[in-house]
Design brief:
Elements (H helix, E strand, L loop, with lengths): L1 E3 L13 H15 L6 E2 L1 H21 L14 H4 L10 E10 L4 H11 L1 H7 L5 E9 L2 E10 L1
Helix pairs in contact: 4-5
């Protein structure tokens, strides 16, 4: 998901705890659909944060937001999970968003995910854990949520 407004209008996200806000937005979204709440796992959170950093760097160099950078081995979320202590799981999924210049970039990320069939399927999946990560630079943010069913 790639959403930007006019670059000159982009500004850094002013939310002092954007990861908490993103987690709450995901939780609220799932609650409105009567889905099970997700446990916020610190190891999954570390994975999501690393993914947001890697995706931001890749986007800055290539201009493309992608789940798998062909120039970097081991950058996919399921390859990073073991580095943060998670060695087994039943299912895992990831959603990414890149946007800037919005008054509420987290709401915009959620809106974009909800409007994409593939991303929506991940948001509403039968998961029990989630981790979120955000990297912002130059008024643009990469928003990542990694989901696990253990």
């Amino acid at each position: 998901m790639f959403r930007l407004r006019i670059p000159g209008l982009a500004r850094d996200h002013a939310d002092p705890n954007p990861a908490d806000t993103l987690y709450s937005a995901i939780s609220d979204y799932r609650r409105t659909l009567s889905l099970t709440p997700l446990h916020r796992n610190p190891s999954v959170e570390s994975t999501a944060k690393k993914r947001s950093e890697l995706a931001m760097t890749d986007w800055e160099l290539s201009g493309v937001l992608r789940h798998d950078n062909p120039n970097v081995a081991g950058d996919r979320y399921f390859e990073l999970l073991p580095a943060y202590g998670i060695s087994s799981w039943e299912w895992a999924g990831e959603v990414l968003a890149l946007n800037g210049g919005f008054a509420d970039p987290i709401a915009e990320a959620m809106r974009g995910w909800d409007q994409s069939v593939t991303h929506r399927e991940i948001l509403v999946g039968d998961w029990d854990q989630v981790g979120v990560g955000i990297t912002s630079r130059g008024g643009v943010g990469v928003y990542v949520a990694v989901f696990l069913d253990s």
